Amino acid sequence: MTATTAESSSPPSVVTGLYLRTKALHAEAERTGVIRNLLRGEASRAGYILLLRNLLPAYQAMEHGLDRHRGSPGIALLSRFRIERSLAIVSDLAALCGERWIEDIPLLAAGEIYANRIAHVAGGDGMRLIAHAYTRYLGDLSGGQILQRLLARTLELRPSELAFYDFPHYSDLDMLKADYRKALDEAAALAPDPQSVVEEGAIAFSMNIDLSCAVEAAVLQGSATVAPVE
């Protein structure tokens, strides 16, 4: 067998497929809604809090689904990583706006739709959860680290309000990101329909864009006023 034949018979990288399929959507996400404002250093504290509150159900649904399938082929490859974000988000919300955040900060329709989608794909073999783990966790390990510095500078957030971006179990986030990307690829290669994982990535990015725009709209309408914790 020639080298060319061997290479052509290798399964394509699903993570590469996700990257290529979502590249334009990723760029759009950075140019729209509250995410655009955050990256420009123009977002309000209320806008950031509202975004965080509406991301929480999506993370909870994803982490519940990943845990549910932790013994399944594919998903099991992701189980050794300790990168869950739900508890960190809850901690940040309490630090940012007090223990009554769940009563004070609204869950928008876009946030609920996003979480419901993840809960839906967690059914069956759960393999499409790989797309959501790719979208959220790799984003947290990449652009999230840039966002952490921006938030500390522009909104003057304290370390206790930025636990979302802290991965205390790991000292080398670049290595973690590389290892997790490899695990996602190996997991997705076991999916009965890898292309469905790629297409789910596009859905995930689209829902993130919808949520970002919904948060921006809510802030402009004045429905996201949050009093700072004293």
Describe the structure.
By secondary structure, this protein is an all-alpha fold. 66% of the residues lie in helices and 0% in strands. The chain is built from eleven helices and no strands. The longest helix is centred in the C-terminal third of the chain and has 27 residues, at 194-220. The chain is globular, with a radius of gyration of 18 Å. The relative contact order is 0.21.
Class from helix and strand fractions: mainly alpha
Strand fraction? under 5%
Order of helices and strands: HHHHHHHHHHH
Distance between the termini: 70 Å
The third-level CATH topology is Heme Oxygenase, Chain A
Radius of gyration: 18 Å
Envelope shape? globular
Q: In total, how many beta strands? A: 0
Alpha plus pi helix count? 11
Topology of this protein?
Layout: H1 3-9, H2 14-30, H3 33-39, H4 45-68, H5 86-97, H6 101-104, H7 109-121, H8 129-141, H9 143-154, H10 173-188, H11 194-220
Helix pairs in contact: 2-11, 4-5, 4-7, 4-8, 4-11, 7-11, 8-10, 8-11
Question: What would you say about this model in short?
Answer:
This protein is mainly α and 230 residues long.
Keywords, separated by commas or semicolons:
disordered N terminus, mainly alpha, 11 helices, 230 residues
